[in-house]
Amino acid sequence: MPHLPRRHVLAAGFGAAALPAWAQGASSAPPRPMHLLILGGTGFVGPHQVRYALSRGHKVTLFNRGRRPKEWPAEVEELTGDRDTNDYASLKGRRFDVCIDNPSAVPHWVRDAAAVLKSNVAHHLFISTVSVYADNAQVGADESAERERYTGPDRFAETMASLRKNMALYGPLKAACEDEVIAQYGAAHSAIVRPGLIVGPGDETDRFTYWPLRVQRGGPTLVPPRTDPVRLIDARDLAEWTIRLAEARATGAYNALGPTGNLTMGEMLDTLRSALGSKAEWVEASAEWLEKEKVSAWGDLPVWIPGQGETAGFHRRSNARAVAAGLTFRPLADTGRDTVAWWQGLDEKRRTAPLRAGLAPAREAELLQRLRG
Description:
Elements: E1 35-39, H1 46-55, E2 59-64, E3 77-80, E4 96-101, H2 107-117, E5 121-127, H3 160-165, H4 170-185, E6 190-195, E7 198-199, H5 210-217, E8 220-223, E9 233-234, H6 235-248, E10 252-256, H7 265-275, E11 281-284, H8 287-292, H9 320-324, H10 332-344, H11 348-352, H12 361-371
Parallel strand pairs: 1-2, 1-4, 2-3, 4-5, 5-6, 6-10, 7-9, 8-11
Helix pairs in contact: 1-6, 2-4, 7-10
């Protein structure tokens, strides 16, 4: 859940440009193959980007530390380096049509990569986050909303280690990264993508995964207010759309949020129950009761953020600009089924360990007992 301090706005004139028709749908082929550089590429979203880019005829080069090798359906060039130590030697002198930066969360990563790349890359696409926004109370806020401001002594001195020690810096540092992208590459050669909750097969956070697994288990299930809103995006939809943005040399900022219309917790749960053939029974608790029982939103009951007060707009941000630029969404039922199938393919140690998000079964049973009597 984002932090909510000071505010600033993105560089003036950084608006979203209209995309050509061929770039607005997955069924339309790009006009020509590109050479894509993906910084990262082996985490959650990256492998989906790689496979989709290959399917559309592009050449793909990855740059990372080489610690998570993957098998690809076609040739992928893999360069190694270390952004913590400013090791970009393998990129020097290389030219690319587009660079997609998936992992940068500290500004010196953006600055140091640009020292090597900005003269050798025609376009830069930065994956940011909706956590850059300073205010989550406004319903329908778009990409022009004020962002958090880094107020520490030196944004370039912040490291991934310092971020892990103080996650309240996440939003301000991501906003500072956005600013550095524009400073280095220019607004006419950059795009900023701000996802919210990314879900689906490969999600190691277990935030969304908790719900299909819990629904599949069935029985009385503790749920938050079912009318509260939800926004999420399947990692595959995000990945494929970023490749199409890269093909179109899109500029501007985009809230990468789904679905197209409004979705509530109740609709999400009902969809998962139907898709998984479950007989789960919803036992709904009010936000006030959950707070009294110290059941946290986002952590104990993942995905859920109260739809009132200072978080009323968190799951109600506008995604109109992204949808107009061709962002599409697969059915939530498919995401739920595919997530369960992915989970069932993991090794036994991972599947039998406690989930990284959500209520433990014993804790949920205690809460259900108190709630019901």
